[in-house]
Amino acid sequence: MARRQSDNKFSSVHDLPQLYTRPSSASLLSTLGRLKVKPAAWGDIAAASQLDEANLPRYLTSIIASSLAWIEEESVREEIWEAASSRLSERSGRTAIPSMSRTFSIPTSTTSSVSITLREPSLTADNLGHKTWLASYLLAKRLPSLAPYLPAFERGGQVIELGAGTGLVGVAIAAMFDVHVHLTDLPAIIPNLLANVTANSLSITQGSTSVGELDWSSSPDCCSEQHEAYDVAVAADPLYSPQHPCWLVATIDRVLKRDLAARVVIELPLREAYAPEIRELKSRMAESGLMMLAQGTERGFEDWEENQRGMEKTEIECWWAVWRWEPLSLTLGKDDTID
Question: Which of 133, 158, 141, 160 is nearest to 40 (CA)?
Answer without folding.
Answer: 133
